[in-house]
Amino acid sequence: MPSVRDIRRRIRSVDNTAKVTNAMSLIAASKMRRAQTAVLEGRPYSVKIQEVISHLVAQPVEDDAGDQPLLAVRPVEKATVLMISPDRGLCGGLHANLNRRVGQFILEQQVPVQAIAVGRKGRDFMTRTNQDLKATFTDLGETPHLIDTQAISHIIIDSYSAGEADEVYLAYTRYVSTMSQEPVIEKLLPIAPAELTSAERAGYIYEP
Known about the structure:
The protein is of the alpha/beta class. The chain folds into two domains: 60 residues; 121 residues, Pyruvate Kinase, Chain: A, domain 1.
């Protein structure tokens, strides 16, 4: 039977563990609130940028302004999916749900699909399932800057412009609420023009 001293030592150990886990919980809650704020405040800008681009693409153009490789619509013989995933685990079913959605998407395609993985979890999934992994980007941090993402955009633009991909899709997890996130796959290229009425059509001057 444990002595009184052993019992007291165990009680102190449990109390210390409780203090540490409570501190970790507070830190995690604070980081979660910051992440939520960043997502909710940045989402309107993202939506508006997509809207502006689709409206610009739908406008009439003159001379050679319409000869843009990212607008070219070709018969689909090859596709690329850009998968954005976490670098680490301990996030519930977030990466498992995204992996499942991306795997299903690839199986549904009638053409070969190359993958670009951003994040270790996506890279590991692509490697584990023997997908055609074109490039991998990891350790971008919680708040990547423009310079951190330029290599990703360059490889996508160059691949599409060179005809190595006829469609490019983006796979990521959309934040809904603290308890709900949904895996989403959206087409990036070719850029789809918006459906405009005659009143919304206007001339734009494109400059280098």
